[in-house]
């Protein structure tokens, strides 16, 4: 648009420092330095001195300096302090300007405090020690929350080390800001790590749906390491802990949480999984026998028996209806499993009675794996019934588990255990990850 404009070149170009494009603007319009001072929202203490555009390199460099009359304080004590000198020039990567990589440059003032000596003033646009501006670091964190580290490096033009460094810093920041608090409703779950039966214990806040703690192995000590962070008074605030029927977790909770007997809730999903495994054993045994007689009725049906009935996919409904109507051991085992699901929909009195009848049916089924599973539940019944006081399940943890699974896949299995934990906290910890700076006093 030439109307009313005059041809003028950027200030940087006037100095002959760079290859610049001439820009059309009205005399009353902003200069590039004013534009960037406004865009960067630098506050009263900083101004942009110079802007350089290198078109071929797709790069913008912005030099920031102190505004006239800026006053500084000691970053240690907040007392006003005179400028002592200026540190070496530093560079920060900022958000791109119209797809040109944009870098901020400044020499940060150092002040001399009467009490603390010479101290460097913090930049208003970056957290200490970061090579990114706050906006760029936040963008990087946003991107990392949406995709894996390699994807984030491609989208933001950063290196793997820079992107992973942002993850680690964000998690450290989140942990430093996290309030000390033991959630009243906990879920404890194990999660396999890499292959070879290595496990992590994952402790979640059942109400907030966040991972509170990840610790190696699934031993009594693993869970105790979490509990030991809190005092007995704090642990007494715990109302319920949902978990699998896994003795080391039970022992840890009994050892650490006052009143644990009434607070441990064996989780519905784990219980149903145990019974489903029994159904699968019955199917495998029966299929073997039938197959030997040339009967292939159970072939390819594994997942039909394991899914909740309503989750059997539409296109396999008819097939499933037919096979479950057959006089098969597997369909009997399946019916026992499905009927157990009703248990959690009842009130406590009715549930205890329902379990008695279910237990009689299961233990008289002459299906050895089902009998065994039913007996395990019977042994643990007291802490299965606690569900009706607390109504807590590992549903949260299960939801988080699928998220953790995604985290794992994104990082090709995380052979590095510490990286795996860090990524879980980053994606599932509910932490306040973003950088902020204190406004100048
Ligand atoms: Zn001071």
How would you sum up this structure in a few lines?
By secondary structure, the chain is of the alpha+beta class. 43% of the residues lie in helices and 21% in strands.
Question: Strands, helices and their partners?
Answer:
Blueprint: E1 6-9, H1 11-14, E2 22-25, H2 32-39, E3 46-54, E4 59-66, E5 72-73, E6 80-81, E7 83-97, E8 100-113, E9 117-120, H3 134-146, H4 149-156, H5 160-177, E10 185-193, E11 198-205, E12 210-216, H6 220-227, H7 232-236, E13 240-243, H8 247-256, E14 264-266, H9 268-292, H10 302-306, H11 317-324, H12 329-340, H13 348-363, H14 368-379, H15 381-385, H16 387-390, H17 395-410, H18 417-428
Parallel strand pairs: 4-8, 10-13, 13-14
Antiparallel strand pairs: 1-2, 3-4, 5-6, 7-8, 8-9, 10-11, 11-12
Helix pairs in contact: 3-4, 3-5, 4-5, 5-18, 6-8, 9-12, 9-14, 12-13, 17-18
The total count of strands amounts to: 14
Strand content: 15-25%
How far is the N terminus from the C terminus? 44 Å
Number of H/I helices: 18
Strand pairing plus helix content: what structural class?
A: alpha+beta
Low-confidence stretches: 1-22
Shape: elongated
Q: Ligands in the structure? A: zinc ion
Could you explain how this protein is built, in words?
This protein has 441 residues and is an alpha+beta fold. The chain has helices at residues 11-14, 32-39, 134-146, 149-156, 160-177, 220-227, 232-236, 247-256, 268-292, 302-306, 317-324, 329-340, 348-363, 368-379, 381-385, 387-390, 395-410, 417-428, and strands at 6-9, 22-25, 46-54, 59-66, 72-73, 80-81, 83-97, 100-113, 117-120, 185-193, 198-205, 210-216, 240-243, 264-266. Strands 3, 4, 7, 8 and 9 form a five-stranded mixed sheet that branches. Strands 12-11-10-13-14 form a five-stranded mixed sheet, with helices on both faces. A hairpin with a 4-residue loop joins strand 11 and strand 12 (210-216). Helix 3 (134-146) crosses helix 4. The chain is elongated and about 90 Å long. It binds zinc ion.
């Amino acid at each position: 648009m030439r109307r009313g404009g005059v041809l003028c070149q950027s200030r940087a170009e006037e100095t002959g420092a760079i290859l610049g494009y001439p820009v059309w603007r009205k005399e009353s319009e902003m200069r590039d330095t004013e534009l960037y001072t406004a865009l960067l929202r630098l506050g009263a203490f900083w101004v942009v001195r110079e802007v350089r555009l290198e078109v071929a390199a797709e790069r913008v460099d912005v030099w920031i300096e102190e505004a006239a009359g800026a006053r500084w304080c000691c970053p240690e004590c907040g007392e006003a302090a005179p400028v002592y000198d200026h540190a070496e020039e530093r560079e920060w990567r900022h958000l791109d300007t119209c797809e040109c990589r944009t870098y901020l440059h400044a020499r940060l003032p150092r002040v001399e405090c009467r009490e603390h000596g010479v101290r460097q003033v913090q930049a208003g646009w970056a957290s200490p020690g970061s090579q990114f501006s706050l906006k760029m670091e936040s963008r990087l964190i946003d991107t990392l929350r949406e995709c894996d580290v390699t994807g984030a490096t491609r989208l933001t033009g950063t290196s793997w080390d820079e992107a992973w460094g942002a993850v680690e810093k964000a998690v450290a920041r989140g942990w430093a800001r996290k309030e000390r608090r033991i959630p009243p409703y906990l879920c404890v779950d194990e999660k396999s790590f890499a292959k070879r039966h290595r496990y992590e214990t994952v402790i979640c806040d059942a109400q907030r749906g966040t991972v509170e703690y990840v610790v190696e192995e699934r031993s009594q000590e693993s869970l105790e390491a979490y509990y030991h962070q809190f005092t007995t008074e704090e642990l007494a605030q715990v109302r319920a802990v949902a978990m699998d029927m896994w003795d080391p977790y039970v022992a840890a909770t009994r050892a650490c949480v006052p009143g644990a007997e009434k607070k441990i809730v064996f989780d519905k999903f784990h219980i149903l999984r145990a019974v489903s495994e029994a159904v699968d054993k019955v199917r495998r045994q029966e299929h073997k026998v039938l197959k030997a007689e040339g009967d292939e009725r159970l072939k390819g049906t594994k997942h039909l028996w394991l899914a909740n009935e309503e989750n059997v996919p539409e296109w396999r409904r008819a097939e499933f209806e037919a096979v479950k109507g057959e006089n098969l051991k597997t369909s009997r085992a399946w019916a026992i499993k499905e009927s157990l699901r009703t248990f959690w929909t009842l009130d406590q009195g009715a549930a205890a009675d329902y379990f008695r009848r279910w237990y009689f049916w299961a233990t008289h089924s002459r299906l050895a794996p089902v009998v065994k599973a039913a007996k395990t539940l019977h042994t643990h019944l007291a802490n299965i019934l606690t569900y009706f006081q607390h109504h807590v399940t590992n549903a949260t943890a299960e939801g988080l588990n699928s998220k953790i699974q995604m985290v794992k896949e994104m990082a090709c299995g995380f052979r590095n255990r510490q990286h795996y934990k860090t990524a879980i906290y980053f994606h599932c910890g509910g932490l306040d990850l973003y950088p902020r700076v204190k406004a100048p006093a």
